[in-house]
Amino acid sequence: MDLSGKVALVTGASAGVGRAYALALAGAGATVIAAARTLGDPSSDKPQPNTLVDTVARAAGSPGQVHARRCDMEREEDIAAAIGETIADHGGLDILVNNAALLTQFEPLTVSTDDWDQMLRINLRGPYLAIRHAAPQMKRQHAGSIINITARGALLLPAADFMPGTERKFDGTLVYAVAKAGLNRLSFFMSEELKPWDIAVNALSPGFVATDTALAKNPNLKSLGGKDATPEVLGPALLHLAVQTAGTMTGQILHTDEFGKSWGVA
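The chain above was modelled as a monomer; its predicted structure follows.
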């Protein structure tokens, strides 16, 4: 996969799945704007795990480049500025990966209004705003690929199907699942809205991933089938979607584990 000359913006790129996606895109030659709340200290020579500084350092030697951009997905002004500066500095925006998300677990009937609203602001409103601000440039280009990172929890599945080892139904992920279900519907609606400009909009579930954050909560995740949060493991499915158009694949809700099986087959 050669993405040389393409410009991508990945939100939530300081750690885990988002970092893997940013590195995969850079590995394919793209210029990547890695956006997240946690920038780190660029002037420090100390290890700074799970920061944008760390993501940039890991991309050293890649065919493409990774540039850090602090962005809080709760703030529309941050989203607008990140997209606007990307376009101004790099001449366009070809790939938008809406990955940033908050996964906080609550007892279903005890979620506070503030917690509910914050989860929806980050996990659903944020991607919508990113699409809204990116769309004018992609329309001018008459091209672009938008990839919304969803989750199996958005579907009507038993908890064990998307969270191995789960004992309780959905394990406190009510708000997260509701937001991701909304993201799936957003993906479909935006795919139809942007189809006339040949812009692809798809949703991709990375599946069960053993990120640093997840491993801190449960060190046994890998033994339960959790995938490594690396560009080698997570990247191929995303890179396939990055080159899609409205004429090849759009409006789809896809799962990484099925890549090369039910979809992405040449």
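The chain is about 40% helix and 15% strand.
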